[in-house]
Amino acid sequence: MTFTGPGVALGQNLPDPWEAQQIVYYHLTFENGGSGLRFKFLSDSGTKSGADIDGFIEEVLAGSPTTVPFSMQQTPPDLIAAKPCFVVVELDEALGWSFLPGSPAIKTQDDHMADYCALMHVDTSGGVTPNQAPL
User: Fold this and answer.
1) Most C-beta atoms within 10 A of its C-beta, which of 28, 102, 114, 124?
2) How many helices (H) and strands (E) does the chain have?
3) How many CA atoms lie within 13 A of 126 on its CB side?
4) What is the pTM of this model?
């Protein structure tokens, strides 16, 4: 199952200087109810202090990410980043859905192009594809 929508792809380059203050993890799922799709974040979604993204990706791939629950209300599928951070989005594997191959996995509105950058798709084997889901 794939979803597409409006928006533009994120930029690829990090601003200089740039230093992440935290990691924000969204474990996204959905329900198909009478009024259409309803997205929600699974309970392990949250934040992690620091910037050890490689270590955190290892935790996610091992199925055991350690996070602190969000302190503010989050409305899926919107992703909120209030300070410089790594944003990790994991799709609920039980649903068998994926990002559309060859397309940007995440988009933003034109007026936020400078705010979000350097999208990397990491698959379940740890393979990395810059700026789009692999073909």
Assistant:
1) 28
2) 1, 8
3) 10
4) 0.75
Q: State the maximum Cα–Cα separation within the chain, in Å, rounded to a whole number.
A: 48
69-102 as b/e, with b when 16 or more CB fall inside 10 Å? eeeeebeebebeeeeebbbbbbbeeeeeeebeee
Burial class (CB in 10 A: 0-12, 13-18, 19+), 45: buried
DSSP string computed for 51-79 = --HHHHHHHHHTT----BPPSS---TT--
Which pLDDT tens digits describe the chain residue by residue (135 residues)? 344 444 545 555 666 777 888 998 989 898 887 788 888 888 899 999 998 988 998 999 898 999 998 877 777 777 777 788 888 888 888 988 877 777 766 666 666 656 666 666 677 677 777 666 655
Rounded Cα gap, residues 109 and 23, in angstroms: 22
Residue 33 corresponds to which tokens in the numbers above?
């109810």
